[in-house]
Amino acid sequence: MAEQLGGLADDRALLGRTSTAERVSDILRSRISEGFFPPGTRLSEDSIGGALGVSRNTLREAFRLLTHERLLVHELNRGVFVRVLTVEDVEDIYRTRRLVECAVVRGLGEPPYPLEGPAEAVAEGQRAVREGDWKSLGTANIHFHRELVALAGSERTDELMRSVFAELRLAFHVVDDPRRLHEPYLARNQELLQALEAGDTAGAERILGVYLDDSLERVVEVYRRRVGEGEIVP
Length: 234
Hints:
Blueprint: H1 2-15, H2 21-33, E1 42-43, H3 45-52, H4 56-68, E2 72-75, E3 79-82, H5 87-106, H6 116-130, H7 134-150, H8 155-172, H9 178-197, H10 201-228
Antiparallel strand pairs: 1-3, 2-3
Helix pairs in contact: 1-2, 1-3, 2-4, 2-8, 5-8, 5-10, 6-7, 6-9, 7-8, 7-9, 9-10
């Protein structure tokens, strides 16, 4: 916990002079997504409030916002915890991804498309592989899909999927072999990017659909095993 709180103290400067629950929730969301607070972690009001220099009321409002986003859960007489997803949660996340991401690709219209963001995410993934940093590769994969969604040019869709991708990271944090989970999808990101560069949205949507189905199968396989062995408790 000391290491995590040290990181939060560094984030204190981000609050600036407009210290609000929304800004605090942004910081905590990022820290949860990055794995600083893994699923099942109890979040101490006193420690986190002290690290960020915010009031108890502000922090509780931030917790409430993140609970609404399904990243935290409040347990009576125990406190606030980073949520541990169930298999059903994971399946619903992927169902949402399929509905939104495939619709974005299908509705792109005539090429060319502004693909600088997805291309940079692919490059980010390639750097992570060269460095053997599999956690960063998972982050790069999320960035790729976030940039893919951004092609819709919709703030509401971006906001919706920001929460979905944050929840997805909760699933990734309990995977015991991140390389096996993430490495195969870098090549698929490149294949999807090439289809979009060629203006082949129908082909890109087919690639994306198979991609998401395979990813769901891999994640659920790990979840079912770890829940069955009692390694994680939803």
